[in-house]
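Sanity check

After download, print the first record. It should look like this:
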Amino acid sequence: MTIEVKVPTLGESITEATLSAWLKAPGDAVAQDEPIASLETDKVAIEVNAPAAGTMGEQRAKVGDDVGVGAVIATIDPGPGAPAAAKPPSGAGETIEVREPQAAPAEPEAAPAQEDGPNLTLSPAVRRIVLEHHLDPSKIKGTGKDGRLTKDDVLAAAAEAPKADAPAQISAPAEGTHQSSTLMGPKAGAQAPQNPAPPTRAWTPASAGERKEERVRMTRLRQTVARRLKEAQNTAAMLTTFNDVDMSAVMAARAKYKDLFEKKHGIRLGFMGFFVKAAALAAHDIPAVNARIEGEEIVYHDYFDVSIAVSAPQGLVVPVVRDAQAMSFADIEKTVADFGKRAKEGTLTLEEMQGGTFTISNGGVFGSLLSMPIINPPQSAVLGMHRIEERPVVQGGQIVARPMMYLALSYDHRLVDGREAVTFLVRMKEALEDPTRLLIDL
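Expected C-alpha cells:
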C-alpha cells in the first residue's frame, strides 16, 4: 500500500511553505525518518522526513511550488528501504535548519546527496553544502565517525574545487550573505572581520556585444523580509537619533577581568553583555522603548526580551535573549555564545526566533560606521551598534584619541517621543562610559 508524505506542521501561524529542494528522487531507497525534501517557510527551512522505509515514489510537487500544511507532496512504496541512519545531532522530523537561499538544482535526480552507503548518510548541514557546491560526496574522504562526512570535509573539498577551473575569475560577493558564524558583537578597528568568503557569483569575460542577465526567484524568506521591512516603513512613524560612546572603560574592564571571568564561568567576557545590560537599564527608565502598540492601546512589558542579530551561513537570524533584565553577565554571554554556535550549525528553532520586545543590531562587526536600522514590528525600537575606532575628542580642554562608537536608535515616533529616545541613548552612554552604574542600577 502506497504511503503518502504530507507537509508537517510548520509552526505557529505558518500555514504554507515553498518546496525548495528534493533530497530523494523517484526510485531511490529511503530509510524511515530520512530527510527526503526541504521546505522553506517565512523564517527557516524545515526538512520533511520519510514516514516509513521503502522506495521513493511519485513526487506530486515541483521545486518552487507553494504547499500548505497537510498537503501530499510525495508517495513512498513500502519495503525494506535503505539502512536506518543514525540521527544527526541537529535532530530529525521538524528540525529547523537555518540555511542559505539557493537556486534549485536543474535535475533533482542527480543530487549527490542521494547516494547510498554508510559514509554517505549526510547530516542536513553537510547536505546543504554538498548541494550548494555541486559536489559528489562519494569522492570526498570522510573523517567523521565510521567514515562519515563532516562539514569541514565538505568545505575543504569545496575550497579545492575552484582550483581546477582554468580561467582566473574576479568574484563579487553575493549581496546580503555572510559566511561568519560570529555573534554580532562590536569589534575595535575599521577592518572587516577575516571570515571565510561567502558563496559568490563570478564576473566572467563577455564576448564582444554580449551582455547577460540572470533571473532568480526570491526565496520565501527574502520575500517575507522585504514585505515586513516595507510594512514597517509604511506603518510606523520611524525616526532615528544618534549618540556616540567612549568605549575606553568597557575595553579596560574586559582587559582586566577577561581571564578571571573565563576561569570562573567558562565563557569569554564579550561586549554584548555590557550592551544588553546597559539597554535593560535604560529601558527600565524609558519603558516606551520596550513597549508596543496594539490597536488603540500601548502594551508595556515588565520584562526585557532582546532580539540579537546573529550572523549565520545564510545571512542574519535574530534569536531572542529572554528576561535579559534578570540575567547576569555570564548568563548573557553564555546564551549569546550558544546562539552563535547553533546559528552556525543551523539548529536554532523557530520558537527561539519569535517574540522579542527590543532589538540590538550591529553592523560594526562588518565595518559599518553609521546606519539607520529599521524597527522590527510590533517592537517600537531597535538599537544600531557600529564599529569602534579611535577618533579625536576634546577632554579637559585637550584633544585626545579615544575608541569611539556611534549608537543609533530607530524608534516609532507614534509611541516614543524624541525626548525619550535621546534620554534612552544618554542612559546607555553613561552606563557604558562608567560600567559601575550597571552594578548599582544607577
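If your output differs, re-run the checksum step. Summary of this record's structure: The domain at 220-440 is CATH 3.30.559.10 (Chloramphenicol Acetyltransferase).
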